[in-house]
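Hey, can you fold this?
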Amino acid sequence: MRFLHTSDWHLGRRFHGEDLIDHQRKVLDHICATARTQKVDALLIAGDIYDRAIPSLDAVRLFDRALHQLADLGIPTVMISGNHDSAHRLGTGSGLYAKAGVHLRTDPADAARPVLLDDEHGPVAVYGVPYLEPALARTQLDAETASHQAVLTSALDRIRADLATRPGARSVVLAHAFITGATTSKSERDISVGGVAHAGADLFDGINYTALGHLHRPQSVNDRIHYSGSPLAYSFSETNHTKSITLADLPADGAPTITRHDIPAGLHLPLARLTGRIEDLLTDPAHEPLSEAWLQVTLTDTALPYEAMARLRQRFSKTLDMRHVPAGIPAQATDSPTYRERVRGRGDLDIAHDFITAVRGTPPTTAEADLLQEAVDDMRVRAQEKETV
């Protein structure tokens, strides 16, 4: 059985103010076209469909369009909610969608209810484990503690119990999580609980193929556990990433064969990075091909040039991010970065620790760090709970 595995669409996301809807529409068209040309038997979409719990109208319209495309393919689709999604909003209408072959799994209680598929080698049970917010999922899943490891363990225990009633069935699990051994990017939202964001790969022992979402770099944790990555770059840290979608072939013996299909170059965001003195950047003809690229520029002039951003945009109209790192000067001796630069890519807990250190001159004590962690966890849980009202 052949699966197409994708994740982290983040519909409605903006890139340094640039609207991505048209780019996302084209890449979704490519995903559906690939499913057709590669003759896949089912699609696996491993969470973060939307970029926000309350998505924009354009994002909702694009998702509606995608649902129609998926239904028109005439092959089953299994989709889960991610940590960016509102599980309740995404799951609305799931019973109706299932009649069109689009199976949404957004409720932890449904994690052990498989979508059952068949091929010439027999049955395949596909289980969808939505993103599990530990403090909320612990009760639903009777987990031992409120941790990613514990709630995922409980979900997988239920899945294995169901599998035990299906002798000879091969198994596929979709999950949205940070699994130990994988590599992060700067565009993923922090999901750490109690200072721990990850869970062990051994949770998925015995599962033939685990289709993961959350991390934006395509990668294998082992030969049976794979992240498809996001189909578009969502930060300049991903400028040189090779974006792809994943084909997973599951033969009779259940040992998957993984093939990555690169997203065509014409669908990539036009990202580039430039570093140098402003006069060199503005006059060097070698940079002419980047005149319309979306740029992150690092200036190495000794002093920050006057009206640097305005001057850069005269040649490079899509300069979206500018930094000043004087050449030959240690980073700690440079001009103070802006608040936005200081917090970019950092989690709430790290920012809180830095605030205490900056105000008081000493870092939080162990007891204070525990309280800060408790507050950050509570804040995230309250945000999730609001989505249930």
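Oh, and this one too while you're at it.
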Amino acid sequence: MEKEEMIKKMVSILADEFEVEQEAIQPEANIKETMHLDSLSLVDMVGLVNEEFGVEIKTPDLPSLKTFADLYDYVYTRL
């Protein structure tokens, strides 16, 4: 899967699941702020990424995933 294709799929899935506008999901935007995530919904997001892309986000790696660009790079390098 090409990176752009993965990003489009992820934006669509996250926007639908967390009820935010796709336009709000910008590469440099903060994930937690943009999607209004608390710790429980962050776990939901991790599970969703694992389910949709087969990529397990490890708990120690979560603090480094601040922006959507961080998330895209993390997932893409593990596909």
